[in-house]
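User: I'm writing a tutorial on reading structure tokens. Could you give me a worked example: one chain, its sequence, then its tokens, then a sentence or two explaining what the tokens reveal?
Assistant: Sure. Here is the example chain.
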Amino acid sequence: MPNVGPMELVIVLVVALIVLGPKRLPEVGRSLGNGLREFKDSLQSPDHPDDAQLDVEDPPKPVTTAAATAPVAPEDDKS
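And here are its predicted structure tokens:
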């Protein structure tokens, strides 16, 4: 895997500055940093409050009607 040197970082930053512009570049960097921080925190803390939402509830039971539970009379073959 090739190493990323200072020249490559400069090229990436220049391209990001051209694409995003000088006003949006700090906002994108800030949101990227916040996202990485939240991701790292979620990996490190096993007691995260969002884990309670991941509990799977029992699936709903199928509804049966009287017609579905009534026995069906066999048909007479008149052949």
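What the tokens reveal: Helices lie at 6-20, 25-44, 66-69. The radius of gyration is 30 Å.
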